[in-house]
Amino acid sequence: MSGVRVLVGTRKGAFVLTADGKREDWEVSGPHFGGWEIYHVAGSPAEPDRLYASQTSGWFGQVVQRSDDGGKTWDTVGNEFAYDGVPGTHQWYDGTPHPWEFARVWHFEPSATDPDVVYAGVEDAALFRSVDGGQSWQELAGLRGHGSGPHWQPGAGGMCLHTIVLDPRDPGRMHVAISAAGVFRTDDAGKTWRPTNRGLKSEGIPEEEAEVGHCVHNLAMHPSRPDTLYMQKHWDVMRTDDAGESWYDIGGDLPTDFGFPISVHAHEPETVYVVPITSDYLHVPLDGKLRVYRSRTGGNEWEPLTKGLPQEHCYVNILRDAMAVDSLDECGVYFGTTGGQVYRSADAGNTWAPIVRDLPPVLSVEVQTLP
Amino acid sequence: MSELASESSAQSELASESSAQSELASESSAQSELANIRVKLPAHLRKLARVDGEVELDLEGPVTQRAVLDALEGRYPVLRGTIRDHGTHKRRAFVRFFACEQDLSHESPDAPLPEPVARGTEPFLVVGAMAGG
Fold this sequence. Notes:
The complex is a heterodimer of chains A (about 375) and B (about 130). Chain A has strands at about 5-10, 15-20, 25-30, 35-45, 50-55, 60-65, 75, 90, 95-100, 105-110, 120-125, 125-130, 140, 160-165, 175-180, 180-185, 195, 215-220, 230-235, 235-240, 250, 260-265, 270-275, 290-295, 305, 325, 335, 340-345, 355, 360-370.
């Protein structure tokens, strides 16, 4: 019987949650790497037992862990992320030039076809690639070398490259998102990049519709429609149907369009999920009610999903990499909170239940659908 | 995060002690004896390196921070990048080096370590800086 494996990164270790296709009874394994911040754990679509984990610490820096047995055992691989050439500078919070310094890996995106190929989005914002299963890392320096690089500024969480979307139709094309620079696209497998932010409007920057400088929080794509991307921005939920050439607002009737994660249903490319958060200064659910919002129309019309979620006194946040979907026949939706809960819905969001309630603050959630 | 207090006049005394020790160290290297060094790692790094208790390293030549860390990373490559930067070999900001009840974090990586460390009677401590609030 098919099943799912949920990979959870937290402030104090990684956890692996597994269940069969019913998604009712869960086995919890962890903490792995207890005491370390685990920004992200991701599995290879080409070899599901191959996992990559970003293990970081303010004291001891970056460690990369790899598992080849679905998270039962782990081995360290390469942790040297050296910027290509002279790193140069970006803007610091006070507007002064600041040298590019590696801090940590925020996100791994394994190749869909080769388990040894994996991309890493890092802080300070850059994209690295490994072609040997994580043993060594090379920067795709054309991104940081984009002419706007010296003007990029960090968001409140640091200047991180947090989202990598690979186009399943075209191996040369990928999209990345950087806080707070915006979205960039390559069509030549990472050699050259250009910003794809037309249509975004951000009140927090001097020129509201600038080419770069937008605080994009997360992107999502349905593999059957690689030209359509959904975006949760600092404020605004946005959509493009031409691979980022132009974006338009789909926030519609959301109670607030601030938030962090965004996901697409595994089988319905027009069904989208967000978790509205009160505002940029109140990173908690509106009115203390934890509500996932679903649009079945590709945006604009949204319905609150509340069954099984706390509807009073709830003041957790859901971070950008902490929501994911499985691809079982009845699509499952998962998210983790800064309060340590991981919720699952086995019916596309209609009803929810916690898998675990008391983990450390959740930084990331990924789901693997197992045969 | 707050860093531990660091430089003090006590350290200038240390520095002159160190130069005396450098004579000692070169004497011992002249005799080409292996120095048996004890290194105590913090719990996170012990776990990463999969070791229990202290690490013992045999060093040839002057016993310095650099020599100890080179030998440590040589034996446990997983520790590369966790104590000092990969490229520059600069100590990570929240890592400290103690020995003989002294903070050696700001000493030159090529300064000889105190004689009891070189003799193996005292361990060289790699410490996660006290931090928090």
